[in-house]
Amino acid sequence: MGSGTNRKRWATGPIWGVILLFALFPHIPFIGKYLSLGTEVLIWSLFALGFNILLGYTGLPSFGHGAFFGIGAYAAGIYFLRISKGVWGPLLLSIVVAGVFAALIGFLVARKRGIYFALITIAVSQVFYFIAFRWDELTGGETGLSGIDRMDVGLPGLIQIKLAGPLAYYYFVLIVFTLCTLLIWRIVHSPFGKVLQAIRENEVRASYLGYRTAAYKWGAFAISGLFSGLAGGLYTLQINAAFAGVLDWTQSGNVVMMTLLGGGTVNFFGPILGAAIFIVSRDLLSAYWESWMLVYGMIFVLVILFIPSGILGLIGGRKQTILR
């Protein structure tokens, strides 16, 4: 039993290394002052880790997953503006609403494979985008929702943390990110996660072993939607607004690029690395060139052609693809 416990501690060791790096980020000379950028990296890393439950561990190429990120963003904004101001309420609603929609859509696509699965998810994402863009009474339409402030959190009468400050909100997001990362790690390394990997390798053989593969795929889709919705809610609180752009298909494409670039198909930490590279590259390149996506797109094409397992796959000497 002792050796098994030691192995588990060793396995989760890299997670604590990543958490420590993020915890020290605000105190690193020069780059530590970019707290907003660091917060965005954490949020998108959470989104990409949740998305990778589908892509990296189940082999399902969802190209419309930005829908759940956007649904979570709007759910948090609507709760804050129309129901009650706060932090926990908006975040809880973003998880619940995104999870419900992910479960409903997952029920429709769980039996689909490959390009059919991908196309349906893209179509669903665009449906939600146009709803948000046109439904002025609920979503604010083209102008979106604004005036969403970050309220204090804590225990009344004992301690209150003012999340309005960028440093406080950074560490708040880091705590949420840490808890979710540990939970996702536990999910993908559980018996449930092992079945997902079996489906990724060969769904037919997994079904022959007696597993109801459609049910497992539906579960993966719903769980992934929960984490995506939470990331969307955190993003709304960060930018103090919610806009239809978060539901656009480009957001879905971004999280796919992050996951593949970092090596999420072969390494748990790939989405985190990919998100960090994407967000930092976007800010650096866009400051000098308006068409920065052209450069990033070319880099992404080169990665897909020559190192399909991503950066961490290349470092680890592993070569494999996931879209199969």
Structure notes:
With 324 residues, the chain is mainly alpha-helical. Helices cover 71% and strands 3% of the residues. It is built from 14 helices and 4 strands. The chain has a two-stranded antiparallel sheet with strand order 1-4. A two-stranded antiparallel ribbon has the order 2-3. A hairpin with a 3-residue loop joins strand 2 and strand 3. Helix 3 crosses helix 10 and helix 4 runs antiparallel to helix 10. The two termini are 38 Å apart. The relative contact order is 0.18. The C terminus is likely disordered.
Percent range for β-strand residues: under 5%
Q: What level of helicity do the residues show?
A: over 70%
Radius of gyration over alpha carbons? Answer: 19 Å
Secondary structure tally, helices: 14
What is the terminal-to-terminal distance? 38 Å
Characterize the biggest β-sheet: 2 strands, antiparallel
- The ordered H/E elements are HHHHHHEEEHHHHEHHHH
Structural class: mainly alpha
Integer average pLDDT: 87
Low-confidence segments, given as residue ranges, are: 319-324
Strand order of the largest sheet: 1-4
Query: Quick one: how many beta strands?
Result: 4
Short description:
With 324 residues, the protein is mostly helical. The protein has helices at residues 2-24, 35-58, 66-83, 88-109, 114-134, 136-139, 166-188, 191-201, 203-208, 213-239, 249-262, 270-286, 292-306, 310-315; strands at residues 145-146, 153-155, 159-161, 241-242.
